[in-house]
Amino acid sequence: MINYRILYVYVNGIWMLTIIKLIFINIPIIIWLFVNLRILRKSRRDIRKYAAAGNDEMERLAILESTSLWGGSICNKLSVNLVVEGEKTLPAGPVVFVSNHESYMDIPVFCAVVTDKQFGFIAKYSLSKLPVFGKWIADIRSVFIERDDARASLRAIDAGIKLLERGYSLVIFPEGTRNKGKGMAEFKKGSLRLATKPGLPIIPVSMAGGWHIVEEHGRIQKNQLVRVFIHPPIETSHMTKPELNELNEKVENIIRDKLNEWNN
Fold it and tell me: Which of 92, 145, 210, 257 has the most CB atoms in a 10 Å sphere around its CB?
């Protein structure tokens, strides 16, 4: 006869040992990632200095320096094989980057790839609570969103629109969460209001491979291929109502079609 209490204790013990093992395996890289943020002290000081002075132009330049340095150093440390295709020149002024979301690696990859335009992220609120990283991602003009609170989410989108109107670009992952390599999920309705209300260009971005680095085995793996395709901009300023109604599906299909092409 099976003693379920003993079985329960045994299974949970195995599970806890596995988690502890994975934590210890990843400790060197995790420590390095947080320490690496400290090399950004100068750019963070510059960002805060220009923000306090109300100098948006210089603040954007300081943010771009910070994101490019951080993303590039992480991808180099992890020996990421980055393959970037698509648009070489981005529109002048603020834009909204719209991307699928596979992995925690999507943020540093974005920072390593887009090195000629400042941007922050529409990010989940819990990221703001991480030591060191939370303060940094707030400094680069990210907007934090509580996905389980509809009113708070609307306020976050409105805050993002105000930043865009001041000339700051943003990245949004409309799936709402990482898909961890399980296939791209449908975009959340209303996500693209961030771009359509102020009438700004949308830059669709397809990304694949980041989940192999972090999520696939529960430990960080080096020397992985990550592909990024920057699609042509979609102007939203003169769209008709029917075009706006179809925009969410249009952008989703553009990103998904490239992912499907890579998988075939």
Answer: 210
Q: What is the pLDDT of residues 64-92, one digit of tens each?
A: 999 999 999 889 989 999 999 998 889 99
Predicted TM-score of the model (pTM) = 0.85
Q: Cβ distance 126 to 146 under 8 Å?
A: no
Tell me the CA distances in angstroms from 134 to 81, 128, 189, one per residue in order.
27, 4, 27
pLDDT one-digit tens code per residue, 197-222: 999 999 999 999 988 888 777 778 89
CATH for the 33-263 domain, from 3.40.1130.10, 3.90.226.10, 2.60.34.10, 3.40.50.2300: 3.40.1130.10
Q: Taking the CB of residue 4, how many other CB atoms lie within 10 A of it?
A: 8
d(CA 51, CA 47): 6
Task: Copy the structure tokens of residue 174.
Answer: 């409309």
Residues with Cβ < 8 Å from 96, sequence gap 6 or more?
A: 164, 169, 170, 171, 172, 192, 194, 195, 200, 201, 202, 203
- What are all long-range contacts of 25-29, with beta carbons under 8 Å and residues at least 24 apart? 25/219, 26/219, 26/220, 29/77, 29/78, 29/220
Instruction: Please give the order of strands across the beta sheet that includes 120-124.
Output: 81-86, 225-230, 202-208, 96-99, 170-172, 120-124, 143-145
Query: CA separation (Å) from 99 to 1, 18, 162?
Result: 53, 33, 21
